[in-house]
Design goal:
Two copies of one chain form a homodimer.
Chain A lengths: L3 H4 L5 H4 L1 H9 L16 E4 L4 E10 L11 H17 L4 E11 L5 H18 L5 E8 L4 E9 L16 E5 L4 H12 L9 H6 L6 H7 L7 H7 L4 E5 L3 H12 L1 E5 L5 H5 L5 E6 L10 E8 L5 E3 L2 E2 L17
Parallel strand pairs in A: 3-4, 8-11
Antiparallel strand pairs in A: 2-5, 3-5, 6-9, 6-10, 7-9, 8-10, 11-12
Helix pairs in contact in A: 3-5, 4-5, 6-8
């Protein structure tokens, strides 16, 4: 069920006050099992091997999501999933999240409750056992979410972008292109005659039920394959946030190698972003672990970061928000 | 020197693009000494005793600061200082920060550079050796900063709000009331005839040079006294963010005690917020460590959280932003 319509009704954040709103949100979030949870000046999180990985990402209404296209639950899901994916890309197991959220005073409390539900659903589906150990609730003219995620390396070295070696196999886990196809369809069909994002148009066009649109709204990064890759000997890895080509270019430059694609990938698989799959390199001759499949090999560094059949592939991404005009649909 | 005027000139964020802007910011931030620094999907931070403390706080233009009253350097300082203070309040030594920042496209790059300078100055002054290990840069209609800070407990138990025992001494470290007096003066004198925040009025009134205004802009929480209190046997502690009375009420309720004030504190010291001093309890009969001074004792829980001379003290704060109308001066 899409909670969008129910979420936009009822009492507003400004009516209830911060403490009452927090109380209604916190109980919906996954608790996890921190050493000390919310309620003090800090949470305390275990770091069994004496280190932790950390990443932070901010999602802003307008450039990063539109209420016309995503429900509050979708936004909560995506905020959690994208950060968990960065933890997985180091080969780490997610160990906790903190979430800072700023909402306009007239935001219905039910929107924040649905947002929290989305966080819980994503954590339960993608990184069960992980929890939200702390947070902050503020007021802003612009709905803004900032998530910081932590992970445990289980005693292993982190899998960096810089570790690919000549002769390694290039492999990917997770979908390629679905999220970009979904966003492309929303930009094409989920708009009113003036080109503004429109929930009515999204529903009328059928885009609302498109599985690709579902992936744009709720990416399903293969979180478990991060530590699986770490245990399985991955030499380099990163999260596919901006598209295979641009992210492969980053890995190639960090490792001072050229990546040679063997797989037949279409344009959207190459250049579409927001799938949050994992791109990794493994030593040749070992079985690829988990959901990883071979798409190429690591070559000595040549003139290009990325080639296919000897032909350079542009390491550019695909950013439909590049021309964002500040509209807030 | 106040960098405000210089900071608001020159090329804009939208002109340079994210990577060029990031490059100019990152070099100004304190690096610290993480296991793995910025540039990969995550940073890796040491947690020598197998745990870390974590806190997050968002600062939003409008409700939390105004450009008419604070320079970008002030905002960077305050964003770092307030989060470091929460780490200290657990008895921990700050071990790292991550910062997510969203700015309007027409924000001068120099504003972000000055913001980074403010972060560096605060870290150097308050928690030398700590660094910014990661971050995120986004676009938003509303200038927004989200800081997450980490700390190391050095093998000790965290000092929680709930540990005060009857007979303990109540003590405080840091200033009381200065930040609130400064903000009060800005609201009174740093405004134009319509009551809107005004940089010209702030300068013309002399408020710009008021040491209390300096404390509002750049709080100096006694960060080092956090771990000093932890080592010195503190039984409970918290950060004075919302004012002594309201924060003392929190400690009293968490510990199920009544706090009895002995010191003669004026109204602004009791109810003014944003000083970010430390309120702690210590066993009777031991010397108070660091900058802590005795202001009362812990009594058995009675009808009130906080009393003075047997008379209840309202555990309410003082929030001049409560009626914030969305103005963005």
């Amino acid at each position: 069920m899409d909670a969008t319509d129910e979420a936009w009704a009822g009492p507003r954040v400004g009516d209830l006050g911060e403490l009452a709103v927090l109380d209604r949100i916190v109980r919906r979030l996954p608790a996890g099992s921190p050493v000390v949870g919310p309620g003090d000046d800090c949470a305390v999180v275990a770091a069994p091997d004496g280190r932790f990985v950390v990443t932070t990402d901010m999602m802003v209404h307008g450039p990063d999501f539109r209420w016309a296209w995503s429900s509050p639950e979708d936004v909560g899901w995506k905020a959690a999933a994208t950060n968990l994916s960065d933890v997985a890309a180091m080969g780490a197991v997610p160990s906790g999240l903190v979430i800072a959220l700023a909402a306009p005073q007239d935001t219905p409390v039910a929107v924040l409750e649905s947002f929290a539900d989305g966080v819980r659903l994503a954590v339960d589906a993608l990184a069960p056992g992980c929890g939200v150990v702390g947070g902050d609730l503020s007021t802003s003219a612009t709905f803004t979410v900032s998530v910081t995620a932590f992970g445990d390396l289980e005693g292993r070295s982190p899998v960096l972008r810089s570790g690919a070696r000549v002769g390694d196999v290039l492999a990917v886990s997770g979908e390629l292109g679905a999220a970009a196809r979904g966003l492309s369809r929303l930009f094409r069909e989920g708009v009113d005659p003036d080109g503004e994002p429109s929930r009515a148009a999204t529903i009328a066009s059928g885009a609302d039920l498109d599985p690709d649109v579902a992936r744009q709204r709720r990416p399903r990064p293969p979180i478990a394959d991060g530590p699986v890759a770490g245990r399985g000997g991955a030499t380099a890895m990163l999260d596919l946030s901006d598209g295979l080509a641009i992210d492969a270019g980053r890995l190639a430059r960090a490792s001072r190698v050229t990546l040679s694609l063997e797989a037949d990938l279409d344009e959207v698989a190459l250049h579409g972003g927001e799938d949050h799959g994992l791109l990794a390199t493994f030593p040749a001759g070992i079985p690829l672990p988990g959901g990883f499949r071979r798409i190429g090999v690591v070559r000595e560094r040549g003139a290009s970061d990325l080639v296919r059949g000897g032909v350079p592939v542009a390491t550019t991404g695909w950013d439909p928000y590049a021309d964002w005009d500040g509209a807030a649909g």
